[in-house]
Amino acid sequence: MVRIGPDTAEFLVGASVRAPSVYNTQPWRFAHRDDGTIEVWADRCQALPAADPAGRELVISCGAALATLVLGIRWFGHQAVVRRLPDPAQPNLLAHVAAGPAYSPGQQELDMFHAVLDRHTHRGRFADIAVAPALLARLTTLARSAGVRACLIRDQRKLRRMTRLTTAAQRIQLRQPPVQDELTYWLRAADTPERDGIVSPEPDPPAGTTPVRFRDTRPDALPDRRATTILLASGRDDPMAWLRAGEALQRMLLHAARHGVNAAIYTQPLEVPSVRARMAALTGGGYPQMLFQLGRSRGVSTAARRTPAEVLVPAAPSLLAEHG
């Protein structure tokens, strides 16, 4: 194995924190061990216990960060040797990553790593431009390589059903004050110095009012019919499946971003257990893990990220336990 030095570790972590996460919570920590390896840890301090009580979305987010870390090591010309969930006694330790023998990355992998800064979550309407079939075919292959199925939902009846389920999930969460309080906690003012959370779509909503996400019934609050809808599904529903789903998601999003395509991610239908179970029918079998749409957008917003200094910790068990 090749030791990853401190400067390289900081660079790799700086790229990895660009991964997507629900509410931009960035629920990860990285440990740079004395032997030059890097560990990916779940940071439960950044969890969403109301919307994501099992931590499924949290682990998916960490899987996306892991995918970027692997691409970065390959970009440096080394194989990435990954052990996922290496220690059953440490469930928050999601991956141990080492730099292995010399490796010549293909152009696609180089392009994906170069797209790390180009990938953004889109929160508006998409342009009326179709995503190329060849690109969609490549994205489904990328998902399959991670053991995840990417279900392209084209049937209009299924799309209408998905929209109804999304609306149903929104209404259910309207009646769940803890979920609304959680969203409010992660909303940030436009001039906030904090580097996590999401900037509120409306300036300073009055105290006690429902955040815009839960009372917006305009058409653009629902999935955009002009975009391509994809539902990621796994054969199992456990932390390993969630981690792999996150890896697949990030590789797909980076490849799409390199071709000028961004994603809008819809978590609500999969946060409500009864709705998620009904959403499974759209996959033809399997457990839905992530619902998103791809399209071309005229502009994207950039969310702030915590710096490597904030998420990269020494590999001392006591320090990591504080964030577990």
Automatic annotation (TrEMBL):
Disordered: region residues: 194-220
Domain of life: Bacteria
Taxonomic lineage of the native organism: Bacteria, Bacillati, Actinomycetota, Actinomycetes, Micromonosporales
Listed name of the protein: Nitroreductase
Organism: Actinoplanes lobatus
Gene Ontology MF term list: oxidoreductase activity
Coiled-coil intervals, chain numbering: none
InterPro entries, A to Z: Nitroreductase-like
